[in-house]
Amino acid sequence: MIGMRSSDNLTGHRLSVRRTVLEHLRHRGIIGVDDRRVTGGSPLALGVSGITADSGGVVAIDGDRCVPSHRTLSDVLGTGGYLADRMAVAARHEAGYDPVLYHAIRDFLPPREKASKRCVPAGTPEHAAAESRDHIFADLVVYQPGTLPGGEPFRSTGHWNLPGQLEIFQTLTGRVAMLVGGYTRDGRPFLYEQVCGPGDLMAVPFGIWHVTYVLDGPAVVFNLTTEVGDAGSVVAHPGEEKYHRASPIAVTACRDSGRHSYVGEGLDLWGRPLGAPRTDWLQSLLAPGESLADLHLYASPSRLAALQRLAWEAYGRCWPHHGGLLEPA
Questions:
Q1: What CATH number should be reported for the domain holding residue 289?
Q2: 28-76 pLDDT, tens digit each
Q3: Domain-embedded: residue 18
Q4: CB burial of residue 34 (10 Å; 0-12, 13-18, 19+)
């Protein structure tokens, strides 16, 4: 009898969270605004039932098409993104070539209060006042497949994170390579890549530069971000400012006979990217079968506190050099 009550309570809590998520997305104009219904699609591990992505990367909830924002080649060019052959890309762009590189749904799940199990949906005073010192924010990005002139896989814009900004990613579909560069706490430079397929988790060190490339797409990637140290107030929607914090690292990926490699004058300074660092501390925080979105929506405040503590301790041990960077595959 007690077990049944406990199970019923768990089911009731998940239904309540699902209602909160739907309310949040409706208020933000993400669902309930596009009459084109989506049929089929594969379930996405995003903490609530009914969220799918079809073969083209269209995300829907109960068949209700989500309306994302779009990032195009114009955005990469406009933010000074480093490109393997900028002249070739610019020439095609001037001729009208401006593909959508990825679709982003910022604040996809409502911000989660760190000190409680409460999520604060859009349209509430708590949502308007949410800051990263006290909350975790959640985004969803769908990267499109393709290759740019010059040989680069379709990619993100790329940007520098703030000091103390913890960011964690989980690839849900497709396959991506993230290039990560920066300096350890004791000032040593590092540059590495991490290739992630469905279900793979990735956390990046504080204050780093990162850019994502699509190896197999569409690739759906969910991510969490919060402030652990002095990040200067990470917000859910930082706008264009994050793309102009500093110049990008002058290294980029290029396809070559079905594989990818890295090119650019920045290799002289940073060296060739190594393989990913160990992040055992992150893997230990998720139970078998649990997604990063599950952690965001349902984890206890003590588990969220452990996440932040372990990340800060890893940084103190000069993550990512602590434990060693792997050789690239």
A1: 2.60.120.10
A2: 999 999 999 999 899 999 999 999 999 999 999 999 999 999 999 999 9
A3: no
A4: middle
